[in-house]
UniProtKB/TrEMBL annotation:
It comes from the Bacteria. Residues 1-151 form the CheW-like domain. InterPro entries: CheW, CheW-like_dom_sf, CheW-lke_dom. One of its GO terms (cellular component) is cytosol. This is Chemotaxis protein CheW. It comes from Aerosakkonema funiforme FACHB-1375. It holds the Pfam family CheW. GO terms for biological process: chemotaxis; signal transduction.
Amino acid sequence: MQFLSFYLTPENKAVLPTDRLAEVFSLEPSHVTPIPDMPAGVMGVCNWRSQVLWLVDLAYLLGIGSLFSQDLDYQKYTIVVVRNKSKVLGLAVKELGNMMGYDRSQIQPPPKIAMPQMQVLTLCLKGQIINPNGENMLILDANPIMEFLAKHRHQ
């Protein structure tokens, strides 16, 4: 299986399977249009290939931090665009990593999560992998993230 790795926070690294990835790009913060009355973690929208692309702070949504709480001044956001059928979503992450290949036998069960603020992480966490540097990386599935946001967009 092929994965794209990235940092959610300086301490938390995660991967997404590449079969749902549409594109990765950098975006200046001034190109994000905030939308009022959206759930926390929804950064706003941007123009992506002449479409409206919703952008979320993935670390915030997963309950493990926030791009804005890391005392970093972002000149550009790193956006990972994921696709589920005809729907797309932009996931803002701290820093992009590498493309990595792993056998299914290397995937370990996900860690147990008991914190209620990590509800979305519990939904989309599919396992974990230890990379060659000994770093533990969370394996995420983007589909539950998109489904969660669709259900909670108007709350």
